[in-house]
Every structure is written in C-alpha cells, then in structure tokens.
Amino acid sequence: MSTNLLTLLPELILTLTAVLVMLFEPLLAPGASRKPLGWLAVLGAVGSGAAALCQLQFVNRLGAVTGFYGTVQVDAFSIFFHLLIASVVAATLLASLDYFHPTQVSHAGEYFALVLFGAAGMMFMTSSVELLMVFIGLEISSISTYILAGFRKGRATASESAIKYFLLGSFATAFFLYGIALCFGATGSTAIAAVSAGLTVTRTPLFGWLAVGMVLIGLGFKVSAAPFHVWTPDVYQGAPAPVVGLMSTAPKAAAFAVLLRFLFDAAPQYRTHWAPLIAIMAVASMTIGNLGALMQSDAKRLLAYSSIAHAGYLLVAFTATEHLAVSAACFYTAAYAAMNVGAFIVLTQLSGFDEKLRTIDDLTGLALRRPVLSAFLAFFLLSLIGIPFTGGFFGKFYVFSAAVHSGYTWLAIVGLANSGLACFYYLRLLAALYARPVADTVGDTPTPRSITFPAALALTATAAATLFLGILPNRVLNLTQRATPATVAQNTVQR
Amino acid sequence: MNFDPIILTLILATPLAGAILLALIPEQEASSNSAVQVDSKRHAIGALIVTLLTLLLTLHLAAHFNYHAAGHTFQFEENLPWINSPAIRYHLGVDGLSMWLIVLAGFLAPIGVLASWNAIQRRTRLFYSLFLLQQVAMLGIFVALDLFLYYGFWEMSLVPMTLLIATFGRTENRRRAAIKFFVYAFIPSAILLVAILWLYNLTGTFDLPTLQALAGAHHIAASPTALLLCSIAFLVAFAVKVPIFPLHGWLQDAVTEAPTAAVMVLAGKLGLYSILRFSFGIFADQSRHVAPLLIALGAIGIVYGSLIALIRSDLKKLASFSTLAHVSFVVLGIFTFTLLGMDGGIFQILNESLIGAAFFVLLGLLYERYGTYDMRDYGGLAARHPWMATMFVLTSLAAVGLPMLNGFVGEFLILSGTMQSIVAHHVLWTTVGATGVIFGAGYMLWMIQRVFYGSPGIRTEEVQGWDLCAREHLELWPFIALFLVMGVASPLWMRAIDTYGTTTADPIVQSGVTAGSQAILKIQPATALADSAMASNGTQPHLTNARQEVR
To answer: Which of A324, A366, B171, B316 has the most crowded CB, counting CB atoms within 10 A?
Structure first.
C-alpha cells in the first residue's frame, strides 16, 4: 500500500496543501492579507516538484513503477509532466500573490486552493494508464479551471468566460467519455495496455476508429486545437491573467500527455487513420490561430490566438515516429509553458486585478516607464516568435526536424511559413513596447505597477528556463528522449 | 600566451558581455523639469571601449592568419559538442573569405559608436546594448561553421536591428519600416530552416565542412530537383538580406529610418557572405545552374539601382539605391565563378561596406547640422565646410571607382571576371554592368554638385553649420586612409581572399586565369591592373581551348 501512495506522492502533496490552505483561510481575519496562504501554496507546488524529482531517482534505478492495480504508472514520461506542471503552478502562484486588491482578498484563499486542486488533477491525468482514471483527472482539473476562469466576479466578460468554458468543456469531456466507452465496447477494457492489445484483435474496428475520433475531439478541445478552438479567445479574455497563463499551459500539457499515451500506446495500429487527421488539425490550428491573432488589439486575445497556433505547432510533432514525436512534443510543451507563463506574468504584474492595461495601445511606450518588465515581455515575445537561443526556437526547430525526419516536409514548410506569419503580430506588440507612447493616451492609461519580489522571482525563473531550454537543452532533451508513453506489461502490474 | 584556440569565442563574448553590462548600467536620472532628457555619455564611452577591444581581437586574426594553409581548411577552429541529439556542435572557424569580413565588422563598430555620439541623446542604454548585440550576431554569422549555430546568429541579427529601427527611427514611419524589415527577412529564413532540416535528415549533420565534403563527393542522396529546390531556399533567404533585385523592397524604408550606426551594417555583407559560404559551399553545382539568372539580376540591379538613385532627391533614399547598385556588382562578380570575379566580388564586399559606411556617416553629419536629408535644401556648402566637402568628394570618388582608390580594384576585377566567364550572354551583361559605373559617377557627382556647390539652399541659408570637429575627423580619416591603401595595396587583402577564391571558382577557367591573378598579386596594382588584365587576355586562347576540350 505504501508504494501505491508513493506513486501518487506529488498529487498527494498538492492535495494536502490545498486542504491546509482551505483550513487556514477562515482563521485569518476577513480583511487580512492572504499572502501567507499563497506562500504556503507555492511551497506545496515546489514540494510536489521535489517529490517528482525523488520519484525520478527511483525510476532511474528501478524502471517504471506501477501502483493501484496498474492504473497509475510512474515513469520518465509522467515525471516529466509532473515537473512541468509543478513549475507552471509555482510560477503562477508567485505571480498571483500580488494580483488581488485589498478589497478582493477574501476570495484569494479559494483561488490558491483551486489552483492546487486543478494541478493535482492535471498531474493525475499524466500518470494514469487507465482511461477512466484519466477521465477523473481530467474532470478534477477542468472543474477547478472552470471556476478560476470566472474569478473576476461581477464582470460580464468573466461570467461569459466561465460559462462558455464550462458548457463547451462539458461537451468535450462527454466526447472523451464516449470515446472511452467505445474503447470498452471494442476491447472489453479501459486499461491502456489492454486496449492496445484488444484493438489489434478486435472484430469491430469501426468502434476503434470512432473511439480514436471521439478522444481526438475531446482532447482537441482541451488543447484548443482547431476546429475545436472557438472558445479560446473569449475565455482567455475574461479570465484573470495569471489563470490564463496557467490554463494555456498546464492543462494543455496534461491533455497532450494523454493524447501521446492514447495515440502512441493505445492506438498505434490506427496510425494511418489518425496521422492525417492530426496533420489537418495541425495545419488548421496554425493557420487559424495566426490569422486570427493578426487582427487582435487586446493582448490577452492576441496571446489566445497565439496559443491556438502553438497547439498546431505541437501537433506537428505527432506526425513523427513515436520516439521523436514524444521527445519533440514534450520539449515543445516545456518551452511553450516557460515563455507563455512568463508573458502572462508580465501582463498580471502590469495592472493587477483591474486589468486596465489590456490593448496594444495601452502598452505602447511601456519600455520608457517599466524597462525591466518590458524587457521580460520582449524576451518572451521573441521566444514565442522563435528567435534562436530561446526555448521557443529550439522547440520549433526540434518539432519541425521531427516532422521532416518522418517525411512530412510539407507540414514543416506550412508550419514555418506560419511562424513567419506569426511574427507580424508579436512584432506589433514588441515594437509598441519600445515605441514612444501616443501623446493623447498618456493621461488616460493608468500607470503600470512596478515589479514586486514574488513576480520578479517568477519572471526570473521563467526567463531563465526559456533561455536554458534554448541554449543548453541537453539535460531536458535527455529526459524527453528517455520518456516513452508505453505502459509496462500487465502481469507486472498486479500487486 | 597563445590566444588562437579561444580567439573566436573571445571575439563573440566581448561584445556580448559589453551588451549585458551596458544594459545593467542605469541611465542618468534626468531632472524632472527639463523637457529634453539628455543622458550622460557613460553608455557611449562603454560601448566605445568594448568595440575597440573587439577590434583589437579581430586584428589578432589578421596578424596570425596562415596564408599557406590549404584553401579548404579553417583556422582558429573551435569544435565542441553542444547538443547531443540532434547532433549540434559549437563549431567556429575562419578562412580567407571570412577573415577580413570579421575585421571589417570589428572596424565599423567603434566608428558606429562615434557616429552616434551626439546623434543619440535619449535612451542610450537601450541603443548601445542593442548595437552591441547586433555586433555579436554579425560576428557570429561570420565565424559559425555549424548550420544550426549559424542559423541562430542569422535570425538573432534581425532582432536588434528591428528594435533599433522601431525605436530610434527618424520619422513616424519607423514602426512600419521595422516590421517590414523583419518580415521580409524572417519569412524566407523560415523556409531556409526547412531546407536546413531537410539536409540534416539526409546527412545527419549540421557541420558545414562535413556537408561540403559530402556534397562535393555527390554523397547527398536526393533527386537533383530536390537539391535544386533546397539550394533555392538557401539562396532566396540570403538574397533578401543582400538584397538582390527584385527582393529589395525593404531596403529603402529601413535605410531611411535606421540611425547611422545601424544603417552602416544593414545591407550587403551578411547576405553576400552567406551566399559565398553556404550556397557555393554546399550547392556548388546548383549555384552554377542558377548563375545565369543571378548574373542577369546583378546587372539589372546595377542599372536599376543607379537609375533610381539618379532621380532621388532624398539623400538617404539615394544612398539606399546606390547600395543596391553596389551589392549588385558583387552579385555579378561572384556568380561568374571565375577567379577574377570571385576575388573581385569579395574585395568589393569590403569596399562596398566601407564606402557605404563612410557615406552614411557623412550623411549623418549633414543631418546633425541641418536636420534634413533633402538635397534641394542644400547648396554651396563647400565654401563653409571645406573639410567635409573634401571627405564627401573622396568618398564619392571611391564609390565611383576612380583608379588609385579601392572601388576601382573591385569593379575592374568583377567586370574582367564577367568578361571571362562562360555563362551565356556574358558580354551583354558585362556591358550592362559597366554602364552602372557611368551612372554611378552621374548620381554621385551630381549629388556633390547639388549639396556643396551652387547657390546656398533654403536650409543652408537659415542654419549656420560648423565644419568637422575632432571626433568627426576621427570617424572619417580611417575610411579615407583605407580607401587609398586598399586602392594601391590590394594584395594585402587579396592574399587571404585568394585562398578562398582558388578553391571555389571554376576549375576550368581557373587554370587559365591563375596566372593573371598571380600577376595582380605580384605587381603593385592600380597602374599595373591594366597590364594584368592584358596578361589574362593573353591566356584567353588557352582558355578557349580548355573549354573546347571540356565540351
């Protein structure tokens, strides 16, 4: 039993911390600062990351470890995503410490707890090798993010954001669940290893195809890949900036992990069927995302469309052979998480809970007023464009090299032409940061807040990660190249 | 102490460290009541020290270059594993092609700092940090021998330049010009990346010498069409950066907007170097295949650029089109694949950069005094600024190609190379290119006449300018000295360039022409160039024979 619990150690630490945060919250005076709770939550996230690192030491020696009757598997693959999610959550929490107004602090405790609960769900998604467990993880993570999306209460955009996300998200999870049901129908099991074995011998391959399609729809929604992307701009615009940073990276990383597990482990024999679908989704996401972003003037909407495009780049990796695909997709997820969370931390820091500084015009001339914050944002934008010596570049480079290697040269051309298109809108924002402010708007826009200690910590960490992934990717590459979504054989699983 | 094994890293690290340091030094607090914030000179001084140090380090290369090494070998090599999978190495090296270009980049940087001394008054921290980053990227392009590393510097070079234009541009049009510059260069570069990845997939290496060897032995397993497409992807990305006609759409806006220090390094050498290094290095056959087209585009670019320059009354726009004409000369020369054309083309890259830089510095001086680039507002300045007029005239004469000055050597070699080439219609294209010399003289001298002679213009009557100050003398004299020295002692430079030329130019023609080029190297040039040309003409029958034998 104890080894079973150890397989879920990072998730347990997050859940316990979240419960502690909820318990301590009522003990604080109504108007008191909730920052201690925030620091506690940060500690929990860091602790769960450390726990994942410990697990890595065990896995290095013993190989993949399973628990709970083979439903949970700890291997390099799941640990990679655990570390990623823990880091994203820690950075988001740090950035959120100064996000709330003194008048709003009464909800800050729930906020910190919800972020942690959600993160536990995401982690659980990446380590379960049983589709129903994956579904439970997906629900835990989704429900927390639905609530977090509407956290700026009393604003129309916030309610729109939460309701839209909730309604469409529920449909998507329903599709996912239906896919699992069809898998069960075709193979008589929901364990990934058994599904994989069952799909090769099933007498009803139609169920298998349908199941793959349904799962693609459900997860396509979660990673905001076209044509299931429609919710993204509205939800991101209404949700709090730090939450957008979180939900554009961590749940997506988890969903991509599930997709990798499902496609390469459960349904590799349907590759000829799903690979073209993935390629189409990739092209559509990249193109729609980039074209949509061209016309945005709101920074959050712009980054929302950019996140659709980045989901497309990531899907390009899926067309490669298993080993390269997993490695490239994992690396890109990490690079994207570092730079995108960083960009949203800057947006969080600039205007706090009011989020008055939203449009490109508001941000014009930022470099004159807040040189440090604007240098950080510029760096993250350059990484999003894919300028060399940043994580964004190496990620793209690696993904497209995987695609070329597997004979999808045309997809690489489409993708890189798209990244050429993308530089238009990132540059519009970037050039605005360093331009002189438009004379008549200076009086209207509120002064951007200066950088605070927790945010500085989070920004330094994300910028360092972005740079590190771009210049010295060896360490991370070693881990991603070892990671494989394969489930260990059933007979070793039973305890 | 022997610096040779780490000299290239030092050359890259010095400006990088400088950029980071300058970014950390705060700008002086401006008193809140003064409307115009004026920063102290601390960033300018810092940048000057860093760039002078870099120049010293680059001169180390020139001093320790081994002229007797075989043409294909790289010197001062550093080759360390960087990323294991995909196999990427930190591989730097220098050969006869890149050596003087590196020194050139080192030389232009301190002058760029001096030229910005008073021109950039606000946000000096940002300006000089970006300027030094630009320097890193440029030097990196010249020394990188790993395609991944090279591509890194190539893309990185776009960023500081774009920000310099967007932030320090002259008019309200600056943001548009910056984005145009970036997009023009970035989209073909993205396709270049696909080509690089495709090559890697075939060969499993990003290492340039390895790729060169594989390509030379025809060991790249791909259809000729695919290889041709790949080579075109390389060439187009480089051609935009040069720019080669008709891909010059970004040039005028960028030149018009960019501050002097940035515009000095904007066009020409990066793209031309890349063509010589990568297009010719990896795709020797494919480059010869498209050579007739490129020669035609080069000749057209010369005439087109010169003609447009003739009718521009804005000095910066004139300069942008004269740049186009000058880089087209280089394109014409190198795509002949003759030794003369190749050597002359590479030499002309140096000339074009120096003359262009001097010209932009001079234009900057005029702008600092009179606040306009419109020629019609000027006139009669020669009497008021005798020194400045002298410098202007000397620079123009170098640009026009007056014998004894450097421009002549390059243009002469290029045109004789074109005449010798075996490409179709080479006589026609030589003639077309040669008219560019006449038009060039036309617009440059006309410009001198309109700015410095005649009756004073509106602006020059209103504003009382001043002649060159000591700092400005310091900016310009190195250029003038180099024009003269490179004009009469070109072998100093040719020795290194020739080691590259002899390995890359067409072997058929080379056998005949080496004699001619040796003659150029031995006899003190300028006056002797005509003789040497005759010497190579003397070998012409032999050449024709060689060609017939090949057929």
So the answer is: A366
